[in-house]
Specification:
Blueprint (H helix, E strand, L loop, with lengths): L17 E5 L7 E5 H6 L3 E2 L6 E2 L1
Antiparallel strand pairs: 1-2, 3-4
């Protein structure tokens, strides 16, 4: 499985500090975010329900 940040598409396999959670709206997609995008509040969008979050 390729683990990439949903916002910047950075490969997360070699990262220590990333987060993984289900979409807060539909729960149907696993969201992966790198530490940099989390800290900067970069937007992400669920591909199943189009929910947008910081």
């Amino acid at each position: 499985m390729i683990m990439k940040c949903i916002s910047c598409h950075k490969n997360l396999l070699s990262e220590d500090d990333f987060t993984k959670f289900s979409c807060p709206s539909c729960g149907g997609e696993e969201i992966l975010r790198c530490a940099n995008c989390r800290v900067k509040g970069v937007l992400y969008q669920c591909t199943k329900c189009d929910f947008e979050g910081p």
